[in-house]
Amino acid sequence: MSKPFTEPKPLSPVQPVSLGLQDRFQFRCHKGIACFNKCCENTDILLTPYDVLRLKNRLDLSSREFIDRYTRDCELDAHGTPGLKLGHKPGSQACIFLEPDGCGVYQDRPAACRYYALGMMSLRRKGSPVDEDSYFVVKEDHCLGHIEPQEQTVGEYRAGQEVGRYDDANREWRRIILKKRSAGPTVGRPSQRSFELFFFASYDIDGFRAFVASEGFRKVFELDPDEHRKLLSDDEALLQFAFRFLRQALYGEATIPVRAQAVGERGQRVMEKLAKNAQASAEERAKQQDALYESLLDEDRFGAREE
After folding, report:
1. Taking Cα atoms as reference points, which of 283, 227, 230, 236 lies closest to residue 255?
2. Pairing between β-strand 82-86 and β-strand 71-75 as defined by DSSP bridges
3. Chain centroid, CA 111 distance in Å
């Protein structure tokens, strides 16, 4: 009896070998190679918070303007945690920043672009208190860079692509996602309002700065004045503070002092406003933002784990 026909599974471009920083691999990309730009003509690039920060500053746009013009929505996991991917040129799968002579934002290109043709994955092994990074080669049929006569260690390649700064800036954000994934199904699906809070603090750095600058914020959170001033002027410091804020709001890791008299009772309404704000158009969000920041400060979940 003949076996029923089954369609073969597509071959993955990911080479099933985990690499460390001292492991070597062969690859080189340059403008003279015949496949130059091919990898940018069919893209699926996940954006990290630091990617968004670098790109929106390069283009002199607000976070919301950049998100509306140059990104598309995605889900980071099976629960539907909201994320962003880099947009495409109209009617194609090409990167929105692809130009005839290469990347139009090369100096501020996302971490995923810097890593190619490597990938990076963070895992927390059972019983380990810390996550570990591992690397793997991505070998697509169109890419001729793998036959170029250049070999280097993973560490050397990362240094040449200046990806270390991106990994450092995104590390705490990745840990937030990893903690959620490692919790498994016992936690259940997060609430819609926690999704919107995650998106707001991860990607809308300008909105988050306005929140931190507000009078209501100072009434709720007890920060050293020098630290507070730095948050208002230093994008990267503010981004790290946003990750602290998320860990406190979502997981109850209380690292940001909260004034006892400031604990309110309007948390439900705050998260509902966040949800509505994130779904609105840029113009509508701009109109809603002032009221959102004021009400956000009455949230009573900043020092407690979400139930």
Report:
1. 227
2. antiparallel
3. 10
